[in-house]
């Protein structure tokens, strides 16, 4: 199979879909790998590294798409790439279709096979290809939140860890999944007081067992959310519904109950956000303010730490890339139940129910 790795062109996205180590494994298995020139530089991998591993370097993104049976990326194709995707081509990347109807329609029109990292699901119900980026984003959420709490950037002027004689800042985490636990861990490490909400009591019991005493748990409902947003300095949105649009747990009217300078970091932005006022931002222009509340909702947060993120991501994606290349997408998804759940759109047909539900589309009868 021919496998292509284009350079990411989303704003300030420096990750790359494959490292030289991945190229080496594919070439060793008899596959051809095309890498767009400079695709890996943002992550610290250079054309010479890829050539040494056996890749063929191509000059343009158009060449990579045109010459490849399978495209391996990090982020979803953006508008400039829509027309580059070929019929029957496998595109293996993060898609987050439920948050973008134009992207969904474009990939339907392309007649490609779209396999989404974020819906590949193992036997235990976890998402192995989403987990490493959720770990990065959860930890980064506290770093970014702490920065934007500073007064020069319109935050409350609160130091999360406090100092002797001054109480620490308060962090509210919505969701006790991977993002939420990593965020709570980082915030607790800084000395902040952390409240984490979830509707899954099993997850809350786990948090209680592994976190220090200044991380407290409560059941998530609107009453408790409204209670805590009034006196917490930093709010982390870490809610995930597999492949579906995130629920709006914080509505527009709730902003007026928060103190001026409260910071919201909505990590769920890729799936539409769990805050009603969330809209995707970029690393170039990451925040906006509504009702004196600072919103940080960068849609590719891990892209700011591309070396760490690329290594963490490709550690888990490479085995699936090899399986798809060795067996072809049909046999690979037939024989691997977790990879089959990654199928979102196949040759013009949406095959992942949550995408249909997100847009209110009627299922297509077979």
Automatic annotation (TrEMBL):
InterPro entries: Ala_DH (IPR008141), Ala_DH/PNT_CS2 (IPR008143), AlaDH/PNT_CS1 (IPR008142), AlaDH/PNT_N (IPR007886), AlaDH/PNT_NAD(H)-bd (IPR007698), NAD(P)-bd_dom_sf (IPR036291). GO terms for molecular function: alanine dehydrogenase activity; nucleotide binding. Its EC number is 1.4.1.1. It catalyses: L-alanine + NAD(+) + H2O = pyruvate + NH4(+) + NADH + H(+). Keywords: NAD, Nucleotide-binding, Oxidoreductase. Pfam families: AlaDh_PNT_C (PF01262), AlaDh_PNT_N (PF05222). The active site is at 96 (proton donor/acceptor), 270 (proton donor/acceptor). GO terms for cellular component: plasma membrane. NAD(+) binds at residues 134, 198, 203, 220, 239-240, 267-270, 279, 298-301. Substrate binds at residues 15, 75. Residues 4-137 form the Alanine dehydrogenase/pyridine nucleotide transhydrogenase N-terminal domain. Residues 149-297 form the Alanine dehydrogenase/pyridine nucleotide transhydrogenase NAD(H)-binding domain. One of its GO terms (biological process) is L-alanine catabolic process. It comes from the Bacteria. It is an enzyme of class 1 (oxidoreductase). Belongs to the AlaDH/PNT family. This is Alanine dehydrogenase. The lineage of its organism: Bacteria, Pseudomonadati, Bacteroidota, Flavobacteriia, Flavobacteriales.
